[in-house]
Amino acid sequence: MSVTPLRASCLCGSVRWEVDGPLADLAPGSADRSLEALLFFSHCHCGRCRKAHGAAYASYLVVPAERFRLVTGLEAIAIYRAAPGSTRPFCSLCGSVVPDGVASGGRVGMPAGCFDDTLGVRPTAHIFVASKAPWHEIHDALPRSDAYPPGIAAPFSDRVPLDPPEVGVRGSCLCGGVSYAVTVPPLRSRTCHCSRCRKAGSAANVSYLVVPLDGLEFLRGPELVRRFKVPGARYFEHAFCATCGSSLPRASRERGIHVVPMGTLDDDPGVRPEAHIFVASKADWDEIADPLPRHDEYPPG
Hints:
The structure is a single chain. By secondary structure, the protein is mainly beta. It contains 2 helices and 20 strands. It folds into 2 domains: 4-131, Metal Binding Protein, Guanine Nucleotide Exchange Factor, Chain A; 169-281, Metal Binding Protein, Guanine Nucleotide Exchange Factor, Chain A (Beta Complex), CATH 2.170.150.70. The radius of gyration is 18 Å and the shape is globular. It is 5% helix and 32% strand. The strands form 6 sheets. A 5-stranded mixed beta sheet has the order 18-19-13-12-20. A hairpin with a 2-residue loop joins strand 6 and strand 7.
């Protein structure tokens, strides 16, 4: 069988990796939800993944180590140790979650949102559903597990640091070094599938709150916020924590708004995403199963 390299990269392109495809031969029928499968592809709803990616869930692909190659960018990878035995690698230049190539049990895990090529396989499960965001509803028919899939006994802590109650809706990064509060009702909320959001969040898609510029206050850690502006982009930049790489709210002063990645929220904002945008750019493995309006790019008007 001929090998087809499947390419992936962070938002700035400094970290690049490949996986030898095709992937379908690793999990015939895509029926095995066990972490012992040669291919494990799942949507994780745990609080740590939501914080790190800024999204409703993180989609992770786990493959045999011999199928993985870190092509370039090892020197750009920063490591945040989220818990004993748990690391969160990210690009120190743009904040994308990336793999560091370290194998566990002969396999390497990586965020699927960063792939540039068609994967040819789809996720087979939702995991840590007991921890899912209150503003996100699961509409597809994939099997669901409250934690790891049945039969997997692995240590895990879903605790993340929280601030004492403040006025407004709170949010924070994974390490707790940066916290903020949304102090006014959001203007709107949408789920974006564009390639830039997928790279920045290293996720299938990212849901955002849009709030007035003066409607968000950083409570702690503004000095830890780093920003990467995509070359050639009029507005798009990625804000992230320098310590843990979590996506963070970004100010668009020209438009008078803050764009807030909803995965970093600690409280229920009381609103739900109202539409999918840039659906024409969505990942081939990303299934939209809810009834919300869909727009190939921005909504009309």
